[in-house]
Write a structure and sequence with these properties.
transferase, N-term/lysine_N-AcTrnsfr, seven-stranded mixed β-sheet, alpha+beta, GNAT_dom, 171 residues, GNAT family N-acetyltransferase
Length: 171
């Protein structure tokens, strides 16, 4: 496995918005109320919203490639861009997705390794993320790679209040 990582810029906006939307829909549409979900996706992954996120100096998007094929992406937040923890010693993984076609091939682990390396270069002590409490497959994946639960927070899909587990990996 030879993954390549490319930092996204405004030039990647259209592709990033589409990939972000598609991966989120593939992962969660079946488990949510259709109306709430549709409204959430239209807001959260609208190109203007993604553009604002791309322009935030404390948020970093990366495309992930394997043999020149786009296989996924991730979004990292530091400082005041973090959604919950707001610890200067931490790096948040707000989004990390592998396209459905490429799942089960250990690419997620390669992405986590890259993120841990970025965190070390930024002199962060740990990375953290929120994962839906009912996403047992993802929770097992993160725990298998050293993450542990340190809290919970609410996450809304429209009017549906859900609970995310906060998971942490010391780097």
């Amino acid at each position: 496995m030879s993954l390549q990582f490319k930092r996204c810029t405004i030039l990647h906006l259209d592709t990033l918005a589409q990939v972000a939307r598609d991966t989120f829909v593939a992962a969660f549409e079946k488990d949510n109320d259709p109306t709430d979900f549709k409204d959430y996706v239209q807001r959260a992954f609208h190109p203007e919203r993604i553009k604002e996120e791309l322009q935030n100096e404390n948020s970093l998007f990366y495309f992930v490639y394997e043999s020149e094929e786009l296989i996924g992406y991730f979004k990292l937040n530091v400082n005041d861009a973090q959604t919950d923890v707001h610890d200067l010693d931490s790096l948040e993984i707000e989004r990390i997705y592998v396209l459905e076609t490429y799942q089960g091939k250990n690419f997620g682990y390669g992405m986590l390794q890259k993120i841990a390396g970025l965190a070390q270069k930024m002199e962060k002590q740990y990375v953290w993320l929120g994962v839906w409490e009912h996403n047992k497959r993802a929770i097992r994946f993160y725990q298998r790679h050293g993450f542990h639960k340190f809290g919970e927070h609410p996450y809304y899909i429209g009017t549906d209040k859900q609970t995310d587990w906060l998971l942490r990996l010391d780097v």
